């Protein structure tokens, strides 16, 4: 599948290069071209720390049926140059990471390539727009993917990112997700994050907006707090894309809770996640993800945040099994 997606992307690139609108500079034409060709992202794609190797992809698929994953994170190298790497420590074509990606391919799964994250040096902050587009495409090609997730948790220059994303989407019809942390249960997105979405709209991008509904202080039941925070983000997105119906806004939304212990709020239990998914089904949310499959086990119950376990009592892969049943 990795090879097939790379070939498909190359075909889209060839078609786009032959288009009379390719160099027109017309934003409306670019929007139409991108939207018409955009690849449909997997509905359910939990995050996996692909560098750590602490999640057994084959075992997860056997136990849950889950095949699609968001591979995190592509960032700049340790020298802070515009060189895409996995986690800042492994080359983008590293064979050990490649072996993990092969396991996803072996279960007929798709990979969403996720850049950015909480730590590390962002490519988005050290590359020019042209370099950034090339870095995105290199990471996608290595993963055999046409699904790109830009996780923005640091200060960035929106214009650089949107120019790069426009280049990539127009060239190959890439599905693009903008992942943004919530500012609070009733706050939704911050003004800075709303400005990023406005930049995406102004650039004519076809995007998924992924709300990181984690690490905020909630009131009352945590499951309800997750849905309230999502509603706040939905209102923000509707304010930017004011020409869309409510159903269309919900359909372009994704949500990503942090399973188990959170730095703030939570913990997100299986019951809380069930509440969230029932809400998502009712509203018609287009996509669901969670952080992370590496934590989806009951190996620690100390209520502390760990990259290897959820910090709560749970059955192994309980969250993956639950999310895998979501159909939108």
TrEMBL record:
Keywords: Signal. SUPFAM superfamilies: (Trans)glycosidases (SSF51445). Residues 1-24 form the signal peptide. It comes from the Bacteria. This is Chitinase. It comes from Paractinoplanes durhamensis. The lineage of its organism: Bacteria, Bacillati, Actinomycetota, Actinomycetes, Micromonosporales.
């Amino acid at each position: 599948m990795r090879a097939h997606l790379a070939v498909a992307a190359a075909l889209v690139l060839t078609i786009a290069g032959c288009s009379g609108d390719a160099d027109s500079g017309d934003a409306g034409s670019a929007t139409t071209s991108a939207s018409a060709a955009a690849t449909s992202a997997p509905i359910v794609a939990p995050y996996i720390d692909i560098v750590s190797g602490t999640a057994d992809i084959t075992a997860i698929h056997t136990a849950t049926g889950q095949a699609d994953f968001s591979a995190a994170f592509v960032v700049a190298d340790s020298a802070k140059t515009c060189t895409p790497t996995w986690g800042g420590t492994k080359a983008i074509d590293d064979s050990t990471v490649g072996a993990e990606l092969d396991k996803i391919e072996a279960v007929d799964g798709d990979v969403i390539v996720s850049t950015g994250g909480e730590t590390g040096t962002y490519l988005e902050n050290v590359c020019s727009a042209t370099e950034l587009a090339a870095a995105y495409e290199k990471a996608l090609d290595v993963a055999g993917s046409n699904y790109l997730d830009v996780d923005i948790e640091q200060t960035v220059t929106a214009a650089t990112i949107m120019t790069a994303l426009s280049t990539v989407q127009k060239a190959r019809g890439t599905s693009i997700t903008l992942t943004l942390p919530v500012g609070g249960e009733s706050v939704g997105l911050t003004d800075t994050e709303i400005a990023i979405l406005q930049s995406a709209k102004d650039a004519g991008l076809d995007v998924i907006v992924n709300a990181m509904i984690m690490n905020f202080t909630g009131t009352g039941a945590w499951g309800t707090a997750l849905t309230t925070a999502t509603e706040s983000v939905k209102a923000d997105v509707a304010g930017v894309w004011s020409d869309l119906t409510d159903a269309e806004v919900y359909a372009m939304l994704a949500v990503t809770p942090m399973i188990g212990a959170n730095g703030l709020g939570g913990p997100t239990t299986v019951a809380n996640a069930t509440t969230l998914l029932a809400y998502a089904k009712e509203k018609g949310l287009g996509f669901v993800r969670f952080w992370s499959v590496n934590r989806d086990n009951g190996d620690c119950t100390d209520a502390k945040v760990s990259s290897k376990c959820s910090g709560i009592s749970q059955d192994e892969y309980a969250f993956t099994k639950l999310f895998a049943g979501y159909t939108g």
